[in-house]
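hiii, so i know i said id send this last week but things got crazy w the move. better late than never?? heres the sequnce for the chain we talked about at the cafe, plus the structure i predicted for it. fair warning i was half asleep when i ran it
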Amino acid sequence: MFRTIVRMKPTVEPPIDPSSAERVLEAAEVLFATHGFEATSVRAITAAAKVHLSAVNYHFGSKENLIIEVLRRAIRPLNARRLALLESSITQHSPQAVPLPELLETMLRPCLEMSLDPERRQIFHLLERSMSEEGNFIREILETEWLPMVQRYMSEYQRTLPDVPADEIHWCIHFTIGAMIHTVRHSTDLEALSQGRCRLETEACLERLIRFACAGLERARSLKP
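okay and structure toks below
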């Protein structure tokens, strides 16, 4: 008797399309913003991007590296816009310091406009996720993307407010950013609780945020370092 031996052909993965990296980034941005970083699987990302499962490791090395790249794509244009406004204000007022309300506006306006723009709101939700979820990628993003921008702003805040301790400036800015995120995220609650009197509009909200932050920073003038 003879047995028929069936030789299995080795599985050959299809070649990775170099252009698939952009599709992976776009799909990951949507899914991370909607479901969060931990809850979004690599399989879900590659399925949404219509690419092979191995595309994430091929282009980015790991899911964590993909998260970092997605966040960088979101943060860098935002910070570039902030710093462009800041440098313009510095040039306009040189050699004097930038007035506090204007300094705050250069920092807050780009983020607030993005959060209220239907075409860019997804990026705001993505950044909001990065502030509320834990992961090793958070520290790298803080150190490489946020810290240089914060340091640049701190030098100008200290020129504008030379008699306010640096730690008080950090606290006030931290509270202000938190107030902005909370306001945008719960804008429908605000409208309902005020019975329609308070609606989230960019200029009105920006004016109130600046007034809120100025009050805190001006009050800090009386504190000793």
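btw The two ends are 95 Å apart (CA to CA). thought thatd interest u
miss u guys!!
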